[in-house]
Amino acid sequence: MLKLENIFYNIREKSILENINLTFEPGKIHMILGPNGSGKTSLLKIASGQVDAHQGKVWYAQGLLSQIDLKQIARYRGYLSQQNNIPFPLKVEALVSMGRYPHFDFQPSKKDVEIVQEVLEKLDINHLTQRDYTTLSGGEQQRVQFARVLAQIWETKEGTIRYLFLDEPLNNLDMQYQKYLLETIKSLITPNLVIIMIIHDLNWAFAYADEVYFMKEGQLFANGHPLKIVDELLISNVFHIASKIIQVPNQPHPVVVY
Amino acid sequence: MIQKKSSIYIVSSIVLIVVVLASIQYGAVLISNQQMLDACMHFFQGKTPSSIYEGVFLQIRLPRVILCALSGGILAVSGVYMQGLFRNPLVEPGIIGTSAGAAFGASIVFVLAVYLPIEWKALVGPLLVPLFAFLGATLATFLVYSISKSQQKTSILSILLVGLAINSLGLSGMGFMTYLARDPQARSINFWNLGTFSGANWQQVSIVTILGIFVFFASTQFAKPLNAMLLGEEEAAYLGVDLKKFRRKILIVNTLMVAIITSFIGIIGFIGLIVPHIVRQLVGSDHKKLLPASVIIGATILLLADLVARLLLAPAEIPIGIITSMVGAPIFIILLKKQLFIKSDA
């Protein structure tokens, strides 16, 4: 469980987030949507502990976020960001292994090495391990970074709630890998993993989200199961565009056209 | 793969040993193997050196070579630290003003120390130069770091430009001190402005040895967070690195390193740039390998530079900083061009 309580956040007097109250449960995929500048990334950074809110509290299952030790929390909280450039040549294998840093002091254990191997297989990037990260395509880089984040929170002590944050993870990916990544994320669902991601495409939200959260001008506009709350009125209120939601025969979920 | 990596350490260590031996032998006077052995024998037997060659070996050549090797290693490590911290291969203490700040601080003592009462001088004299160098280097580092970090996104150009300004501020401060100085002082400031090992002595060697041990232990701690920083500052924080603490620690250690070295030997630019660049090609960007390999290769390259400085116009000596700059500046320009090209391409 992850709980945000009365979160307020400003950047230079400008209000970015206003009075956010939310609870993210484990075992579900939570997707945050909203126009540019609506506070999505700030929300994600506050919930993950990168940025401190000016007011309000963030609760993890392990306690108040501001009181959890930085090294401890790194063992069960991973964050995939949008910016992924690295200034020096670095082997993919070495990069993914860095995900295990919070788990060892000087030398990775045998288990750490095994986990890296498992993750590489899980994301189907075994063939890239000896490549230099800086020479990969944008999509490949994204998958390598995702592998690193997964390795970080892959396994912890029994029952520890883990947290996975993804800031627009579908950027740079072609359609095949967008679907592949979302399927991978879906396959990660366990009762002790909280998954929160920012996404722009409503159609993916229909297909994969258990809960959606619509942000507008720093406030939470609406939230709930996508099939229950998303309609043309909501889309026009949040994004200021006219749209149509269409049921497709023999498909489990509708599509949005705009 | 593993074999290839460890053989780099072996080969570079052998090269270092050869260069050390050559540096001891060659110079204004040639010292033979027999003379070296004799000098060592006499030293351990507690006898006075029997020839001038032995004296040169023990009191001039040996401290010079050891100081040079240690300084090369430490300056290379400083380059690795700064490049890791700024996440850019173009940063090093000579370029962003740390050395100039240290040199300015040291030159203040150099010129004004004559006005100190004699009793004071005896008490704090030897410490004053490193202390002021540390203050100057701290100020310079702090200015560059805080100005370049105050923007949302730090571009390498802004770091380099701020560094350029701090550099010329430090150098003009030094110029002012030279102006105030009396003639013999001014000449030595000027020489030391370009870096030299000609004044090396055993006291400096012992201080720098202690510094080297300290840097070694610091580096074992810094390797992991520096690796995490390769991914980005936020990413490092998500991996459990306490950024504020880490930045503070590494900046203090780095400033201390540069200040002590600069107060003894003056400004030697580009070693912190050339060495990490070469070593990255050999062992990659993992700081667990990059740091130790940089020490070995940094020592080797600075010894070679010193050898050239001593031999090129022998028996006269060229300031070593001139040699390192002549090699370093073109490499810097190539790296800069490469980076700006990639940036504009993206």
Notes on the structure:
The complex is a heterodimer of chains A (258) and B (346). With 258 residues, chain A is an alpha/beta fold. Chain A contains nine helices and twelve strands. The longest helix of chain A is centred in the middle third of the chain and has 16 residues, at 138-153. The mean pLDDT of chain A is 92. Chain B is mainly α. Chain B has one domain (2-345): ABC transporter involved in vitamin B12 uptake, BtuC (Orthogonal Bundle). Chain B has 13 helices and no strands. Chain B has helices at 2-25, 33-44, 52-86, 98-112, 118-149, 156-180, 183-193, 202-230, 233-238, 243-265, 271-283, 287-311, 320-345. Chain B starts with a helix and ends with a helix. The longest helix of chain B is centred in the first third of the chain and has 35 residues, at 52-86. The A-B interface holds A 48, 50, 70-75, 77-79, 81, 83-91, 94-95, 98-99, 101-102, 106, 148, 152 and B 87-89, 220, 224, 227-228, 230-232, 234-235, 237-242, 280, 284-286.
Structural class of chain A: alpha/beta
Distance between the ends of chain B: 32 Å
CATH architectural group of chain B:
Orthogonal Bundle
Q: Tell me the distance between the termini of chain A.
A: 35 Å
* Count of discrete domains of chain B: 1
Helix content class of chain A: 25-40%
Mean pLDDT over the full residue set of chain B: 85
* Largest sheet composition of chain A: 6 strands, mixed
SSE sequence of chain B, one letter per element = HHHHHHHHHHHHH
Low-confidence stretches of chain B: none
